[in-house]
Structures are given as C-alpha cells and as structure tokens.
C-alpha cells in the first residue's frame, strides 16, 4: 500500500505524540479528585478539577480546529503542547500554595491541551486512503498504551518529591512531558489543513442531519461521556471504600491500558465486522462495566469494571470516529471534525461535572445505575442507522 506511506509515517509520529500528550489527562484524572478533596471543604466539589479539564477540552476544540486550519496541524500542535506545559505549571503552583481555584485553572488549561491531542486521530486519517483510515486511527490510539504507563508511573515516582506539597511534582512532570511532545510533533509531515477549503462543501446542518452522523456522534458521546462519568468517580469511590491512593492510581493505569491496548487490532476488527458492530460491542461492554461495578466494592471489582470500561471506550469511540469520517467530503472535514468533537467533549464535561456530586449524594451504586439508559439510546440509534443503511451522500 505505497499510496499510504505518508499516512503510515504520520500515524507513527502521532502515536508518539499521543503517548506523551495522553499522559496529561491520566495524571489529572488520577490526582485531580484526590488533590481537590484536600483543598476544598465540601467534598461534592472534589472532582471539579477533573471536570474543568474536560470543560477545557470541550472549550478548546473549535478554537484549536480553526487555529490549525490557519497555521497547519504541526504549528497548532506545538502551541497546544506549550499550553499544556503552562497549565501543568499552574496546577503545580495551585497544589503548592493550596489554592483550589488556581489548581482548577491549571487543570482547565491542561484540558485545552487535550483538545489538540484529541485531534491526532483525525490528523492520521487526513492523509489515509478509505481502507487505511480505521487502521490509521487505531495506530494513533496505540500511543495511549505508553500514556497508560507514563501517566500513572509519573505520579508514582514523583508524588513524594515535594513533601510539603504532595503531588505538586507530579504536575511538574506532566509539564515536562508536554514539552518533550513538541519535539515529536515537529516530525509531522501532514499537508496543512489549509490545503482543503474548509469553508466549502455543504452547510453543516445538512451534514449533521445524516443518520450516520447522528448515530456516530451519539455513540461517541455516550461511550466517552459514560467513561468519563464513571472514571472520574472511581478513584474517590475506591478511597472512600478504604482502598489506598496507590490502588486507585493503579486502577486508573489498568483502565487507560484497557482503553488503548485493543488498538493493536481494533482497525482489523472494523475491517472484518464493520464499524457499526464494533461500536455496538463497545456500548455493550460499557454496560457490562456498570454491572460489575454494582456487584461489589473490592479492589478486584473496581479494577475489572475499569478495564471493561476502557475496552468499551476503545471499541465504541474508534468505531464512532471511523463512522464520522464517512460523513464528510475533504473540504468539509475541519468544520465537521470540530462540530463532532465539540458535541462529544461538551457532553463529556457535563458528565464529569455531575459525577462528583452524584457520588457524594448517592454513592458508587448510583453512578453505575445511570450508565444503562444512555447506552440503550445509543444502541437503538446505531441499530437504526445500520438497518436503514444506505450510501451517505457525498461521503469521503
């Protein structure tokens, strides 16, 4: 597949960038709720730092897309990494000074960095053929495997380096990883986004009315939103049940590994079974994670639920992303990708904000029970789209 040589090269570069950039949310998720609980009296607000990271991601999607349209992918990714390093430094300062609002500002800025990192998967698809697109997306997501180790291990090795300000050094390490990522993204050779006339093509509402677009966006936001919803609450729930911070951090590490390990074969599964079937499998696994979460409160129950949640996210999110790439023409990709991610990550932010309050008010069981209705809706929409499947107008 000589025609995909550039796409393969870029996918490998972006996988390396994902390994470094993907460590950022893993660190915030592992520590955000725990640090927040130490800095705020009302524990209902303990997960706000994590939620603000998700809000920053949603808020940054559209500005990041238009910045990359103007400056190109590579320059945009450098700017994103600089924002990430600055945000991590602000978060570390907030921890050191015991200022909750400053810590929250730092995690919000880390979320803005995440809006750039999340577009790596689309950047990999930009130069790929239709047959290679699912695999290119999967290759990039494989970089998350390294992130699953780098993030939690950074926490483990740095958490006690500043005894008077526990975990401040972990956020400084997060900033160093963002700076290293700059050297990686400079190797990107993708054509500038400006080569495609993003202002052309069909009106966005027309594209968004496609059944495939509706089903794919709903599946992505349910899969990602529920993953964030449960994952945000899990470390605090584990500590509340008497488990250690180390066990909670390892649970997040296993979860992130499960999110990205299947990427070695997700693209091939899509090629064999189809995008709709793999998306459906992801939604079913998400529901199964909630079943396990309701079955007990041991470390094993938490870890198994988090692993199932991670695999469900991988199948559901990559499958839904591949479905979205079928919905637009080349000149429409910037606005459609931005609209997709804004909808998905806006919902993720809402889910994350509600997680801490629900955990405080109703406990871990209430978090898990709320997984089932959204999964049922998403499954119905994916089935509707698959059964009424017809060629998408203007696809690809």
TrEMBL record:
Query: Where do the TM regions start and end?
Result: 12-34, 46-68, 75-93, 99-116, 136-155, 167-188, 213-240, 252-271, 278-297, 303-328, 340-361, 367-387
Q: Which Pfam families match?
A: MFS_1
Q: Which PROSITE patterns match?
A: MFS
Location of the Major facilitator superfamily (MFS) profile domain: 212-396
By what name is this protein known? MFS transporter
Keywords from the named record: Membrane, Transmembrane, Transmembrane helix
Q: Which Gene3D superfamilies match?
A: MFS general substrate transporter like domains
């Amino acid at each position: 597949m000589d025609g995909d040589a550039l796409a393969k090269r870029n996918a490998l570069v972006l996988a390396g960038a994902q390994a470094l950039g993907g460590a950022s949310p893993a660190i915030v998720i592992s520590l955000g709720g725990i640090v927040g609980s130490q800095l705020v009296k009302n524990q209902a607000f303990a997960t706000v730092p994590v939620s603000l990271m998700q809000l920053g991601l949603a808020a940054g999607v559209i500005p990041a897309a238009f910045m990359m349209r103007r400056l190109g992918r590579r320059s945009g990714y450098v700017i994103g990494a600089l924002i990430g390093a600055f945000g991590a430094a602000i978060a570390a300062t907030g921890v050191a000074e015991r200022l909750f609002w400053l810590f929250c500002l730092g995690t919000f800025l880390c979320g803005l960095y995440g809006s750039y990192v999340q577009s790596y998967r689309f950047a990999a698809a930009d130069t790929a053929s239709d047959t290679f697109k699912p695999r290119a997306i999967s290759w990039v997501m494989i970089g998350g495997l390294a992130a699953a180790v780098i993030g939690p291990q950074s926490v483990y090795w740095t958490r006690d380096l500043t005894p008077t300000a526990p975990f401040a050094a972990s956020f400084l390490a997060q900033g160093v990883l963002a700076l290293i990522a700059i050297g990686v993204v400079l190797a990107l050779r993708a054509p500038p986004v400006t080569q495609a006339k993003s202002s052309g093509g069909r009106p966005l509402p027309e594209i968004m009315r496609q059944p495939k677009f509706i089903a794919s966006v709903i599946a992505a936001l349910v899969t990602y939103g529920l993953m964030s919803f449960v994952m945000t609450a899990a470390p605090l729930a584990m500590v509340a049940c008497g488990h250690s911070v180390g066990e909670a951090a390892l649970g997040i590490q296993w979860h992130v590994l499960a999110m990205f390990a299947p990427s070695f074969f997700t693209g091939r599964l899509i090629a064999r079974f189809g995008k709709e079937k793999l998306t459906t499998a992801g939604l079913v696994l998400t529901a199964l994670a909630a079943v396990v979460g309701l079955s007990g409160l041991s470390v094993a129950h938490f870890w198994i639920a988090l692993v199932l949640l991670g695999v469900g996210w991988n199948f559901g999110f990559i499958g839904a992303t591949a479905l979205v790439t079928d919905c637009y023409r080349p000149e429409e990709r910037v606005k459609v990708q931005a609209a997709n991610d804004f909808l998905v990550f806006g919902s993720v932010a809402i889910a994350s904000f509600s997680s801490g309050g629900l955990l405080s008010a109703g406990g871990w069981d209430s978090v898990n029970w709320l997984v089932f209705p959204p999964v049922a809706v998403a499954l119905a929409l994916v089935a509707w789209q698959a059964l009424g499947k017809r060629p998408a107008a203007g696809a690809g």
